[in-house]
Amino acid sequence: MTERLSIAAVTVNHNTSRYAELMLRSLLATHVLPDNWSVAILDNDSTDSIMDLRRFARSHGMTWQPSGFSTQTRNNSHGQILRQFVLDTPNCSNYLFLDADVCFLERDTTTTMLAELEATPDAFGIGPRLSWDGITEIPLDARRANPDIQDTALSLLRPDSQYATIPYHCR
């Protein structure tokens, strides 16, 4: 019998509650999440209107946790928060890092990402091919020239890779 993969999905909320809720709604609209998935929202003591996001998360069995940072923390690093999440959540086969900037449009995006990750055993993680029109990948030169385009807004990672060490100083 093949062991089922478990996914620990996580997003950091930093006064982005409306966008985080939209991202999570789009995830649920385009994916049927198996029972072995978990979704955590790590909040930086957000001061925006968080009640709708908290209600939505609770109604879908998602966990809400303080990140240990506030919106006033100087040099607040999502990388440090995600690193701690990985250390605190060792019993899963993969991590899915979600950013509030993501909106899922395609069905089962994560299944495609997981298949590509599994087909590339030396890869630590994989992300989607970003596109402005939903069809054509944004060229690398255009992504590099535009700092607002984040290549890492959505990442699926494996914890058992030799590359899986996330340095403490990541930012």
Beta-strand share of residues: 15-25%
- Helix % is 25-40%
As residue ranges, the low-confidence spans are 161-171
**Largest beta-sheet characterization:** 6 strands, mixed
CATH topology: Spore Coat Polysaccharide Biosynthesis Protein SpsA, Chain A
**Computed Rg:** 16 Å
Number of strands: 6
* The number of domains: 1
CATH architecture: Alpha-Beta Complex
The CATH superfamily name is Spore Coat Polysaccharide Biosynthesis Protein SpsA, Chain A
Which term fits the overall shape?
globular
- Quickly name the level 1 CATH class: Alpha Beta
Q: Which structural class matches the secondary elements?
A: alpha/beta
Q: Order of strands across the biggest sheet?
A: 3-2-1-4-6-5
What's the overall average pLDDT, rounded? Answer: 81
The N- to C-terminal Cα distance equals 40 Å
| H and E order | EHEHEHEHEHE
Helices, strands, pairings?
Blueprint: E1 7-13, H1 17-30, E2 37-43, H2 51-59, E3 63-66, H3 78-88, E4 94-98, H4 109-118, E5 125-126, H5 140-145, E6 154-157
Parallel strand pairs: 1-2, 1-4, 2-3
Antiparallel strand pairs: 4-6, 5-6
Helix pairs in contact: 1-2
